[in-house]
Amino acid sequence: ELSPEIERMAKEFKVFTRSRKIKTPQDVLRIVLLYCGLDQSLREIAANFTLLEERITDETIRKRLTACGPWVKALLTEMLPKKT
């Protein structure tokens, strides 16, 4: 479960605006973590998502990841401790 603040930020940064193939902000974060954290390729993420949720293309994953940059930066700014 994501906090309401993270979900609000996803909508504010237009990372998650409507439910189509990617149904929740959690799905968006899962895609980001698979790509950045586990270093999976776009095709691997699309295959993983297709097996668990709904059919999606690697191009759709790429477009969503491209739009996530400012959101991820804002999330990290909120989550990481501030320098003193």
Question: What is the compact description of this entry?
Answer:
This protein has helices at about 5-10, 25-35, 40-50, 60-80. With about 80 residues, it is mainly α.
What does this structure look like?
This protein has four helices and no strands. The model has no long low-confidence stretch (mean pLDDT 87). It is mainly alpha-helical. The N and C termini lie far apart (30 Å). The radius of gyration is 13 Å and the shape is globular. 65% of the residues lie in helices and 0% in strands.
Key features of this structure:
65% helix, mainly alpha, globular, single chain, 84 residues
Distance between the amino and carboxyl termini: 30 Å
Integer-rounded radius of gyration:
13 Å
**Major beta sheet, specifics?**
none
List how many beta strands DSSP finds. 0
Taking pLDDT < 50 over at least 5 consecutive residues as the criterion, the unreliable ranges are none
N-to-C SSE series? HHHH
Q: How much of the residues is beta strand, in percent?
A: under 5%
Structural class by secondary-structure content: mainly alpha
